[in-house]
Amino acid sequence: MKVKIKRWNGVATWRWDIPEDDVCGICQVHFDGTCPTCKYPGDDCSLLSGKCGHNFHMHCILEWIKQDSAKGQCPMCRQRFEWTEQPNDMSMDTTHAPPEI
Amino acid sequence: MLKIWSMKKEQQKDENSAEGNGAAAPKKKKVTAAQLRAQKDLSELSLGTTMSTEFPDPDNILSFVLYVEPDEGMYKGGRFSFTFNITPSFPHEPPKVQCREKIYHPNIDLEGKVCLNILREDWKPVLDLNAVIVGLQFLFLEPNASDPLNKEAAEDLRNNREGFKRNVKIAMGGGSVRGESYKRVLI
């Protein structure tokens, strides 16, 4: 049997390179979703990882850290919150849709 | 190559223009971050048998009443209620909690202000409403004389624990303690 591919659609998904069922401790929303003020996940609403190992939506943790009552501390472990230089990479997970025959 | 980024931009543009001529677009009530988070916290609330909530305005989840009926400790048999007001900056700010009944308690003053570390200096946004209600429950089980809002009650607790217990009973029964009269809160 000869198959002739007329057209194909490439499909890609992405997710943050952190454990899958993790939620942002501040807004309690899944990391693959956005913080409550954003509409689109991804580069527009990125994550920030602390040196203490705790991750948050960037918008959520910045909102907290700018408050005086935060005392510059991570809301999870109360250590000084310093973010890592290297932001989390997006891991690309590419799959192809079946070609249309 | 699929143009997802340009597609996204177009979608955003459409939405912006829809917002611009507001009359044409169907009006959608914006759900605030505080509401989203409060909704989540409330759905995960574990009240047990000694607590219950009441929403005076069912459309406003940011304002509710929590009833506490301690089933052990010195305040056993009493029924106390607390108003919870969640500000728009929740969870970056703690909920505002106040006791509605006049109470004889070292950590709650006669106006109902509550002294609980996680409602003040130790609040952090990863804490949830469950943590707060557990904290309130704990205040009834272990009143704490070291950081008092009601200094007289704290003195009694520190110097004369049995006398303090008696005073709690008197106050809950609607009597007077140290010249202050209380309403009956026994169930």
Automatic annotation (TrEMBL), chain A:
<keyword id="KW-0131">Cell cycle</keyword>
<keyword id="KW-0863">Zinc-finger</keyword>
<dbReference type="Pfam" id="PF12861">
    <property type="entry name" value="zf-ANAPC11"/>
</dbReference>
<dbReference type="GO" id="GO:0008270">
    <property type="term" value="F:zinc ion binding"/>
</dbReference>
<keyword id="KW-0132">Cell division</keyword>
<dbReference type="InterPro" id="IPR051031">
    <property type="entry name" value="RING-box_E3_Ubiquitin_Ligase"/>
</dbReference>
<comment type="pathway">
    <text>Protein modification; protein ubiquitination.</text>
</comment>
<dbReference type="GO" id="GO:0031145">
    <property type="term" value="P:anaphase-promoting complex-dependent catabolic process"/>
</dbReference>
<dbReference type="InterPro" id="IPR013083">
    <property type="entry name" value="Znf_RING/FYVE/PHD"/>
</dbReference>
<keyword id="KW-0539">Nucleus</keyword>
<keyword id="KW-0833">Ubl conjugation pathway</keyword>
<comment type="similarity">
    <text>Belongs to the RING-box family.</text>
</comment>
<dbReference type="GO" id="GO:0061630">
    <property type="term" value="F:ubiquitin protein ligase activity"/>
</dbReference>
<dbReference type="GO" id="GO:0051301">
    <property type="term" value="P:cell division"/>
</dbReference>
<protein>
    <recommendedName>
        <fullName>Anaphase-promoting complex subunit 11</fullName>
    </recommendedName>
</protein>
<keyword id="KW-0862">Zinc</keyword>
<dbReference type="InterPro" id="IPR024991">
    <property type="entry name" value="RING-H2_APC11"/>
</dbReference>
<dbReference type="GO" id="GO:0005680">
    <property type="term" value="C:anaphase-promoting complex"/>
</dbReference>
<dbReference type="GO" id="GO:0097602">
    <property type="term" value="F:cullin family protein binding"/>
</dbReference>
<feature type="domain" description="RING-type">
    <location>
        <begin position="35"/>
        <end position="78"/>
    </location>
</feature>
<keyword id="KW-0479">Metal-binding</keyword>
<dbReference type="InterPro" id="IPR001841">
    <property type="entry name" value="Znf_RING"/>
</dbReference>
UniProtKB/TrEMBL annotation, chain B:
<dbReference type="GO" id="GO:0005524">
    <property type="term" value="F:ATP binding"/>
</dbReference>
<keyword id="KW-0067">ATP-binding</keyword>
<feature type="domain" description="UBC core">
    <location>
        <begin position="33"/>
        <end position="177"/>
    </location>
</feature>
<feature type="region of interest" description="Disordered">
    <location>
        <begin position="1"/>
        <end position="30"/>
    </location>
</feature>
<keyword id="KW-0808">Transferase</keyword>
<feature type="active site" description="Glycyl thioester intermediate">
    <location>
        <position position="115"/>
    </location>
</feature>
<dbReference type="GO" id="GO:0061654">
    <property type="term" value="F:NEDD8 conjugating enzyme activity"/>
</dbReference>
<dbReference type="InterPro" id="IPR000608">
    <property type="entry name" value="UBC"/>
</dbReference>
<dbReference type="InterPro" id="IPR016135">
    <property type="entry name" value="UBQ-conjugating_enzyme/RWD"/>
</dbReference>
<comment type="pathway">
    <text>Protein modification; protein neddylation.</text>
</comment>
<feature type="compositionally biased region" description="Basic and acidic residues">
    <location>
        <begin position="7"/>
        <end position="16"/>
    </location>
</feature>
<keyword id="KW-0547">Nucleotide-binding</keyword>
<protein>
    <recommendedName>
        <fullName>NEDD8-conjugating enzyme UBC12</fullName>
        <ecNumber>2.3.2.34</ecNumber>
    </recommendedName>
</protein>
<dbReference type="Pfam" id="PF00179">
    <property type="entry name" value="UQ_con"/>
</dbReference>
<comment type="similarity">
    <text>Belongs to the ubiquitin-conjugating enzyme family.</text>
</comment>
<dbReference type="InterPro" id="IPR050113">
    <property type="entry name" value="Ub_conjugating_enzyme"/>
</dbReference>
<dbReference type="InterPro" id="IPR023313">
    <property type="entry name" value="UBQ-conjugating_AS"/>
</dbReference>
<keyword id="KW-0833">Ubl conjugation pathway</keyword>
